[in-house]
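Support reply, case 0932

Customer input (verbatim):
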Amino acid sequence: MASPSKRIIAVIGATGTQGGSVTWTFLSLPNWHVRCLTRNPASEAAQALASLGAEVVQADLGDLSSLSRAFSNANAIFLNTDFWTVFRPTMASGKNEVESGKLAYEAEVTNGKNAAIAAAGVSTLERLVYSALGPMEKASNGKFKTYHWAGKSSIVEYIENEQPELAKKSSIIYLGAYNTNPFVAPKRNPQTGEYGFVLPFSKETRFPIVDPIEATGPFVRALVEDEAPGTKLLAYNESSYLDFGSVVDIWTGVTGKNISFVQTTAEALHAMTGIPLEILLGGAYLGEFDYCAGVEGIIEPHQLKNKVQTKSFEQWLKEGGLKNMNI
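Our regenerated output:
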């Protein structure tokens, strides 16, 4: 149980990448008690969190009553909804990409609404931080749409429009592209042995890169402890809002290899690799629109009241990230 002298943060998805980072960060803060929500408290990952001092409770985003119990007396909540846990197995079961996307979208939006409804009923709540993506379809005037982006932006709209009192206590974090994202790692051509990128955008395309394991927790802490509610933060690592030409140059410098770059279309890359358009259209969108296009009043890391220390993408590669990318 939490000490009366400590504030409580409830972390949804604590055994995942983002939630794990938030958990580890707040466990290191003496004035916080961390409550990890999980569907299976007996799992190895959940027990590992308990051994670090976290309170582990059973809750399911599909079960509103379990969320209400788990949020009891919380001062802060971190919410991250998951599209891929429905999309990938649904695709594997034989459904087509559109059907899979719709089912995953509906599940994610339902889960996000459930969490918002439960959070709105917590009288002690001071801050909800939701991990989102921008309104792709709206920002592109309908030219681009993916269910993954649409689900998260729909949850933001629901909080802002349908839960006005909760919205007054909410902040949104927009994490940049993960540093382990396949888009930012060159692939080896098995015929030539050479490395290169084949992507649905140009070298001039700019996007933010973030280490979600290192950075999510510290950025969320800043939103909870330092910033006013309503803050919208585009979160990325130091010196890592890059055009892709710079990404290629960084890879060349770190590996000593000649890294090639070829621009193609999302459709051609889909036909070549089988990678779902649900993923590839995100890249095509970023080739024409800013990462957080359509999000009003967003701030970037340098505008935070207290600086969050992070490693640049280049530094991360040099200090061990290269091994994680199998290059």
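We compared this against your earlier run and they match. Two observations from our side: The radius of gyration is 20 Å. Residues 97-120 form the longest helix (24 residues). Please reopen the case if you see a mismatch on your end.
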